[in-house]
Amino acid sequence: METKKAIISVKDLVKKYDDFVAVQGLSFEVYENEIFGLLGPNGAGKTTTLEIIETLRDKTSGEIIVDGFSVDKQAHSIKKIIGVQLQAAGYYPNLNLVELIELFAGLYGANIKPMEMLEKVNLQDKAKAKYKALSGGQKQRFSIATTLINQPKIIFLDEPTTGLDPQARRNLWDLIIDIRNAGTTVVITTHYMDEAEQLCDRVAFVERGQIIALDTPDNLIDKLVSSGFERKKEVKKANLEDVFINLTGQEWRE
Amino acid sequence: MKKYNNLTATLALAKASFRSIMRSPSAVVFTLAFPLIFILVFGFLGGGGTHIDVGITPGSDVNNPVMGMLEKTGMIRLVKDKSKADFAKLLEKGNVDAMIDVHRKVNSAAYSVNVVYTSASRDKGGILKSVLNNIFYDKTLKPTVAEIKESTITGREYKTIDFILPGQLGFSLLSTGVFGTAFVFLSLRQTLVIKRFFATPVRRSSIVIGEGIARIGFALIGALFIILIGHFFFGFTLVHGALTVVNMLILATMGIIVFMGFGFIISGIAKNESMVPPISNIVTLPQFLLSGTFFSIEAFPSWLQPISRALPLTYLNDAMRKVAFEGVGLWDVKFQIMILLLWGIGIYAVAVKVFKWE
After folding, report:
1. Contact call for residues B8 and A106 (beta carbons, < 8 A)
2. CA-CA distance, B234 to B226, in Å (whole number)?
3. Spans of chain B, pLDDT less than 70
4. In terms of DSSP bridges, do strands A202-207 and A185-190 run parallel, antiparallel, or are they unpaired?
5. CB atoms closer than 10 angstroms to residue B263
6. What is the rounded CA–CA span in Å between residue B200 and residue A150?
7. B residues 182-221 closer than 8 Å to A (CB)
8. B chain contacts of residue A146, beta-carbon cutoff 8 Å
């Protein structure tokens, strides 16, 4: 993280729905090749913000530049260089995974081998399965595979680990770190602070459509500690999730 | 960066959609099974018409007791005021079951009755024959009628299947166009599949056209299947063979495109999947019943006929029957095609307004 070149820059982003202001003046930058976390409670405006950057939603005002392209005028160019995983999105009915990957390859105009894409997310055994027949973790891994088809510079993951068991969650973290290590910038939203702490290089806390803190997880924690905060209960060297993983093993199990 | 190719995207969508349709049981049932079942039932049921249409040869005497007696039977409809050439065609197709020509015999008060039957309508011809025989031996008539001359022309036999099959084909196109399109777009919208597509560089037009190609392709395969089964198992008449099939498929394409417009509208106004069948039925049922799918619309009461004549399926059925049985070219059904086209313009004008992407 030596070069801190911004690949996404959001300035004074505002989104109003009729009488409700979902996003009120957000500004932040995402650096190239980092994992950037947008954290916050439900309804804080995380998904709205992501979808505006992804060119799926119009903004009310503000300026957004993605890899040099403006969302206002160059949405088409942005779509070509990003990969998007939507919260709760479905896939074309009655098709198996290979056929779905072929479909997306056509939509992106990408020349890829479907099996290689599935191998990246360890779903090669499920090539002939329908999306509906996959487990929660497999569905999320498949969604991530579809974001990688156009070899994007940035991928957006909206709550990819919600509803997954601890093993599936940790495996997904490994996958996300691999993707970042391969040179892709990752923007992720999550409700899980342990996840953000483990995964994200920097996080922004969003509350009522505004950013209330933005820094590395370490700095944010240090700041809080230096303000005199102390946990009520002394922290042990492991937590219950560690126990769970230790007892049930960490292998892919779906 | 490589230039983005809209055609690749459209074809990828068409391929995906086609695969999906082929694996969807409801699509296969509506497009193939239902029409085939109806064809089977009506194919074996046979026609149950009780009217015998008898053409009066131009130049024939009309003020004679024979005609009066025929009309009195209540079974025979006398068809007048058509040219000789028209009658010849109608007779050949069995649209009139026989021709009658009555003349006063030279130097006599008695009449000579000349009857021409058609092999296209042997059954009804037979009934007419016995009716005429009864009349001939009727006491009041006997003295005035000297003779009945009978002959039979060979016509093309117009079978029940020739009427039923085009109607079923039209219905199949209607239901696959309306139900299929409405369900697919509503569910793609609701499951956020379309939203995910929008995160790719694909154009909206590619999504609609890709879906359209798949739906049309599927409908045409279904149509071909119905025509071939009808032809080889039930003796459906294809006057010019393969050329007739091609003409029918061209008509089918026009029909499915118009009917898909209804589907786009329904997908836009339906709030959820359970609203699709009732709304779709409002569109399909009246056409199913009133567009001459099972019965000729001439059999309907006269107040109902204008409604029938307003429906697009009526014109598709009409054009299909003319092309298949009478062997006319597409140019000869230009009126029917024009009405379909007008419907198409109207429907898509509404569809553009009410269709929802998200």
Report:
1. yes
2. 11
3. 1-2, 43-50, 74, 109, 137-148, 153-158
4. unpaired
5. 28
6. 9
7. 187-188, 191-193, 195-202
8. 196
